């Protein structure tokens, strides 16, 4: 199977909406993850659940990546392990947070990533976000607030703090993925396998200190719970993170973050259809604001993303790597990256 590499498909050769569409699908899949996680997660089983989720996903991703895994350099492997550790931290914070707070608070607090990401990007690039983009982000967050008001706010809890830390960690993961020069021209599938392996190592080391072992949890799962676990592993993990890594290097972190910010909207839609939730008038108004805000934000981010992809498209094609992992005619450091050196790129939930 041919794996997707940045050099194989230049972002400048396709309209931006073709990059946006898979990211929106990730938001839909992640929106569905709350029902699955609520069915599976308890305080005692969070680490076991995450370990099982990645143990299921990693071998499938390894088959998808194929021989590209053997072509990774030591520096690329190290960077992938670091990203995997960041990823494990995000998921631990989010999953424990959801267990210890209401869905309303969790959905609202984690959406602050939409604000944190462009601000972090502005600091990293020493530029000021446009008023239009900040306005769009604020409108989207306001929509999330209305959308998640159905159950009302609860007294701030440890889970609320965990979700706030998860939003910060998610932003750090996005920025690291987008700005690590070592991985800019790395095969997305191979890098995802390394990330999954790094996350598995973290969960495995933490497992002996957890309340229930993964073996016990797996044996106790019903067929319906296994179906939910497979959904988390294959769709919410494998599909979602691969698409995110592929898209983050073809547009800006802020643009990707806004599109992923529609996740609460899809969670509400799935909750209404599959869970019987009734958001009411405030929820419907919030859904409209999210759609308007993300559409406005995409338009505000489009000029920078277009300039970025045009610059990447003007670069010479990346040579095919040799079996030892180095490109023909030079060292990895001499190879043009899939994006210019100063480019920013750019998030994960349950």
From TrEMBL:
What are the UniProt keywords, alphabetically? Answer: Cell membrane, Membrane, Transmembrane, Transmembrane helix
Q: Signal: is it a keyword of this entry? A: no
Principal subcellular localization: membrane
EamA domain residues are 21-148, 158-294
What residues form the membrane-spanning segments? Answer: 16-37, 43-65, 77-99, 105-124, 131-149, 190-209, 229-248
Subcellular location per the Swiss-Prot or TrEMBL entry: Cell membrane
Q: In which family does this protein belong, per the annotation?
A: Belongs to the EamA transporter family.
Q: Protein name, please? A: DMT family transporter
Q: What is the lineage of its organism?
A: Bacteria, Bacillati, Actinomycetota, Actinomycetes, Kitasatosporales
């Amino acid at each position: 199977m041919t794996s997707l590499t940045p050099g194989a498909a230049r972002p400048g050769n396709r309209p931006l909406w073709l990059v946006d569409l898979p990211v929106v699908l990730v938001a839909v899949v992640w929106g569905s993850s709350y029902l699955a996680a609520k069915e599976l997660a308890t305080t005692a089983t969070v680490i076991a659940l995450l370990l099982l989720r990645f143990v299921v996903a990693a071998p499938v991703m390894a088959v998808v990546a194929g021989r590209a895994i053997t072509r990774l350099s030591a520096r690329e492997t190290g960077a992938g392990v670091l990203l995997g550790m960041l990823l494990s931290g995000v998921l631990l914070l989010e999953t424990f947070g959801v267990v210890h707070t209401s869905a309303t608070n969790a959905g609202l607090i984690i959406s602050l990533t939409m604000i944190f990401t462009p601000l972090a990007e502005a600091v990293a690039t020493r530029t000021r976000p446009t008023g239009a983009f900040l306005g769009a982000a604020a409108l989207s967050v306001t929509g999330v607030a209305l959308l998640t008001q159905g159950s009302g706010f609860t007294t701030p809890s440890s889970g609320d703090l965990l979700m706030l830390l998860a939003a910060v960690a998610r932003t750090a993961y996005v920025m690291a993925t987008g700005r690590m020069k070592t991985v800019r021209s790395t095969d997305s599938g191979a890098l995802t396998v390394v990330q999954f392996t790094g996350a598995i190592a973290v969960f495995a080391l933490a497992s002996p200190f957890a309340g229930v072992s993964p073996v016990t949890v797996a044996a106790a799962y019903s067929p319906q719970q296994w179906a939910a676990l497979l959904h988390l592993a294959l769709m919410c993990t494998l599909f979602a993170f691969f698409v995110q890594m592929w898209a983050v290097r073809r547009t800006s972190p802020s643009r990707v973050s806004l599109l992923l910010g529609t996740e609460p909207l899809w969670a509400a839609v799935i909750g209404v259809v599959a869970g019987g939730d009734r958001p009411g008038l405030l929820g419907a108004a919030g859904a409209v604001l999210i759609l308007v805000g993300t559409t406005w934000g995409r338009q505000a981010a489009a000029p920078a993303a277009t300039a970025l992809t045009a610059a990447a498209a003007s670069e010479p094609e990346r040579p095919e790597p040799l079996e030892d992992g180095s490109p023909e005619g030079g060292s990895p450091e001499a190879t043009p990256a899939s994006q210019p050196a100063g480019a920013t790129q750019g998030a994960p939930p349950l």
